[in-house]
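seq:
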Amino acid sequence: MTLLPLLLMVSAFSLLNVLQLSFVGGLPTPERSIGVNLEAAKKGTAKAAPKTFTMTGIFKQVAESTTGYGELKDKDALERRKLVKEILNAYWDVVGDGLKADADVKLNGYLSLRVNKKPAVKKGTVVKVAGKEYKSKGKPAQTKLSVSPLKNLLVKVGIVKK
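struct:
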């Protein structure tokens, strides 16, 4: 008779323990207060959004950086922006022609553009790799453009110091 109360007490404790841990996530944790106002969070995310440059925005910024742009009337400013657009498009046409002809172009010490051409490999061609001979599966010819930043660009962006 003396073991019955002890047995009931042990079973009650084990039942409470099972019930408490059977909920998803186990024991409840107290809620944390972040202390951030919702309006302040919205303002912070709006400022943190990265600014993207569109072609129109770039043309406008280049035109505005030219001498005397601020003193121009609206019609003359529009003509200046159109002229800048034509000049930059002509510049990239010349760069494209240079890549077709020479396959290697350096842009003002900022970027190096190079066309890499790999010839086609016929199916069944024997290829030696690390002293072993393999039969190739065959691949079509590839033409890729590789772009490398040069030191002037890295200095301007702040990745490398002068």
